Amino acid sequence: MRGWFAALLLIATPVFAAPLPELKLLSEHPVDDMIGGNLSGLASCNGVLWTVSDRDDTLLYSLDTSATVWKAKAQTLQIPPIPDSGLSATLRGMAKASALIRGGDLDFEGVSCDAAGNRYIVSEAYAAVLKVPVEGAPVWLELPRKVIEEAQSAGMLQHFNAIFEGIAVNQAGDQLWLAAERDKRGLLTARLGKDGWACDASCILRVESGNDILPPELGGKPVSKDFADISLYKGKLFTLERAAYRICRRTLATGQLEACWSFAKEALEPNRLYDQKYGLTEALIVDEKGAWVGTDNNFGVRADGEKRPVVWRFAAPEGGWSRKP
Hints:
This protein is mainly β. The protein is built from four helices and 23 strands. It has one domain (19-315): Neuraminidase (6 Propeller).
């Protein structure tokens, strides 16, 4: 009896993990000439960085990274009629109403690309993916309605402004991953086959609920766990977990957590703080030498006076991203 009770106590007692290893900041780059500001995604396509803004419905930006301050060059998109992804009329209506006030009806929240250089942009407002080919007009992908149906049945995509926040596409352009932001958060995937886009047995890789604790600099209060972006690198899915100021490595098959690294120490330096009580990082690229992390500052001014979106370059962890911290 005593042994059983001791085991029960062990199970019930919280386990406090050791502090995560901190990533080293190499450089930071304010971004000029984004018309709507609010950088909300990053992709590296054959050596060129691309970004989107959640306030610019018809623009995709390439980035001139030749100087410390980056310059955004806008490519105008001809947006075709928006498909019905199966997202509820209530959520779509709330997105339209919000756009009247802040702009950004489509609410672009992530961008990725394939080896051919085609770009893929996810619209949070409509839970849809726009393919921007190297040549030719943009088209909306005909994703299966099962993606939305399964996600909502599992408790995801229930709240306005908490839909899809990130996208990753493989090099062949025939599989994509989507990150459901929060309340609940999750990872979903679909494949392109001979009959179009479809899911395997399930569209869902993982569903997670619960809270993270904001750093003391942001008030230390509990907030919903979130995914702010995802990046595909060497057969692993990397998640940007905004509230916890960390980047985590996960398996492609199930989204199972393998390892995490923190960037809180650098991001929360006094001169980099905003008068906004939540995390603001929304864009992620992981590569061999490090990670790019982009900030959507919501037009807020940083403590040092910086008003533009900022992209940070972090060095890869010692031993590389494949190594366990």
